[in-house]
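User: Hi! I'm working on a homework problem where we have to compare a predicted structure to a textbook description. Could you give me the structure for the chain below?
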Amino acid sequence: MPRVAVAQFTGSVNWEENIAALRRLAARAADAKVDLLGFHELASTIYPPFKEDPALFDLAEPEDGPSVGAARAIAREHGLHMVYPFFEKDGTHYYNSALFLGPRGETLSKYRKATIPVSRLLPGASESWFFRPGDLGFPVVDTPFGLRVGIIICYDRNLPEPARCAALNGADLLFVPVTTIAVTRPWWELLLRARAVENVMFVAAPGRVGEDRGGAPGAPYIGESLIIDPRGEVLAHASATDEDLVCADLDLELLARQRERWRFFDARQPGAYAPIVAPVRARR
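Assistant: Happy to help. Predicted structure tokens:
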């Protein structure tokens, strides 16, 4: 069975501190004989949308930036497949992105967060002030472990469509890197379990933990990283307060049985679902 891990730590404005955490956690993953490892949203830095400050754009980097280069070296050192989320600068555009790295540190895929919230998670700013909506679709990648891997990011999980798009593209395992605060705790586990069940796939959701160093004051993030199976059963649940890594072995025979039993995708009626993609006036 492929072994998957999710890792969480407290972010810092100093990217080298974040890379030090990656290095610690990747070493633990390697010791645990993990095949695929995922980190939380914007693991390269703090969660910047806590105030509308142009200086925060200095935390972004291109795909060949310093923290990404360090993450590639870590994946290569331990021979890991690794999901590394980062604050991406592409010319004059900024994205909330994640790379899926192979065991030689190579890029297997890149995802840019599609669903950018216009509401404010924290009082000072909205993500829409920082990030453009993603433009790369929902890529899914084959791995040597018999798992096809997709990624969505944080707020994407609140809508069924992003996870469904990844599933329709063939995902068996969906990584969902997250940064979230206590107000979302009542539906944190609920939504991720629903995404796993309705798409008959594994979900691995690493969540940032604690109060960012140099970030939003008085806003600790909830951690509680999760790994969930296609029945919606929680296989692993990380700390709500501390740096942590948890792992689980993914039963591919269970995945096949669940898909054969429920056959949700065979029952779909795409012609009936036009309202899902039709423009609508926002509800207040």
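For your comparison, note the following. The first strand starts at residue 3 and ends at 8. DSSP finds seven helices and 14 strands in the chain. Good luck with the assignment!
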